[in-house]
Amino acid sequence: MTYPANLKYTETHEYAKIEGNKAYFGITHYAQDQLGDIVFVELPEVGREIKAGEIFATVESVKAVSDCYAPLSGKVVEVNENINDSPDLLNKDPHGEGWICAVEISDPSEVNKLMDVAAYEKHAAEGGGHH
Amino acid sequence: MADLKKTPLYDIYEKYGGRIIDFSGWALPVQFTSIKEEHAACREAAALWDVSDMGEILVEGADALSLLQFLMVNDISKGYPGRVIYSPMCYPNGGVVDDMMIVCMQGGKYLLVVNAGNIERDYEWILTASKYFKDVTVKNLSADVAEVALQGPNSERVLQRICNYPLNELKYYHAAEHVDVAGIDTLITRTGYTGEDGFEIYCKAKDGIALFEAILEADEGDGLVPAGLGCRDTLRFEASMPLYGQELDENHGPLVAGLGRFVAFGKGTYFVGSTALMEQREKGLPAKLVGLEMLEKSVPRTGYKVLDESGEKEIGYITTGSYAPTLDKYLAMAYVPVEASAVGTKVKVLIRNKPYAAEVVKMPFYKRGKK
Hints:
The structure holds two protein chains of two kinds.
Chain A: E1 7-9, E2 14-19, E3 22-27, H1 29-35, E4 38-42, E5 49-50, E6 55-61, E7 65-69, E8 74-79, H2 82-85, H3 89-92, E9 101-105, H4 117-125
Chain B: E1 19-23, E2 26-31, H1 35-44, E3 46-50, E4 55-60, H2 64-71, E5 84-90, E6 96-104, E7 110-114, H3 119-130, E8 137-140, E9 145-151, H4 155-160, E10 175-181, E11 184-189, E12 198-204, H5 208-217, E13 224-226, H6 229-238, H7 274-283, E14 288-294, E15 305-307, E16 314-324, E17 329-336, E18 346-351, E19 354-361
Parallel strand pairs in B: 3-13
Antiparallel strand pairs in B: 1-2, 3-9, 4-7, 4-8, 5-6, 6-7, 9-12, 10-11, 11-12, 14-17, 14-19, 15-16, 15-18, 16-17, 18-19
């Protein structure tokens, strides 16, 4: 598996895809592979203010429940309604169609604290820490 | 994983891509490809599990039947060689020590197939009781036995290719001893824990790997796949079969769990737990196991609280909850008071501190169609 170079990553296996002042959050290929078949995603409410490191969504596979931690602070401006009916999009296309929500970034300086693709690939290859 | 117990088949999990987890002290594969795929394979084709973690206890001797009549709530005297009987084994309070399959064998022997987590406790319990009987011996064979489960509509076709026994004559809940399967001496029972037709096949521990692989190799486009614990649980859950430690435990006996048909009050002998169970039956049950379907989408899980419709009062808890892959529903089994147990009763399930609407529905959730 290759990870997209245009994403920023967390140690806890979330990503942020940054487009201007907006960021799309999701979970990485590594995270979905560890979880297995995803059957439900509890989405955040549009308008909610989230701080980096806070739980912004909960992903449930057949066997496991996993909280997702926000890579960046911001206000939720959009959620991916498609995953209500097709939560398996997170398995099939975690870095694309399986995005979870989009936020308006409130503190662009936080981006520097995230991992780039090289650092994340190494982290995932080493077993991914505690996720 | 080093200090985990391993079955005789442990060494081949990797070859088939098994993802190993710690399942109450056992190193077992949770899945080989995907829980949903393996679940679907069992419903539509066939799936094969290593279930050697299960325990086997042999009871034999002239008083073996008397001992089992004393310990089991079901009527074991209805058994005959080749018959399999399911029974809970109760404490005096009516709670459950374990639930098991009893394979009635030639020569007045009984093979008790018990849950992995309860082997030692069951053995001690049965051994202690056996001291009150003259001619009976109890042996724990668990370490010497491998067991595989072949389940799904194509099971008979696959297994028949490598054994001479006419499987179409082996009826549900019946057993055949010393059946040659691919050159291996086995015991076959037509039983299972998935809601599908299928077989559970026992052999010596040393033959376990050969048996497992011989069955996989007997597939000729029948869609047979190796399967893990993950779908073992979702399949039995959809079929609303109880799991010890969840639906049954020291405090939740066969009557509250809806297994009254296995409690043979009329069998003519005293059995452990009968007094308490009789009292429950006469005075009314303290709780009842029901099926729940989520009306608001979310995943109910083991241990979550069940609230009344107003969402204010806690009335019970979930024993097993999951997404049900075949039915594409979010379902649960739960203990609730009898007055909240009627089909159609509206309740709430507390998920991450938020009440979600659910409704009592009929069990079993899934029942296979007749052939």
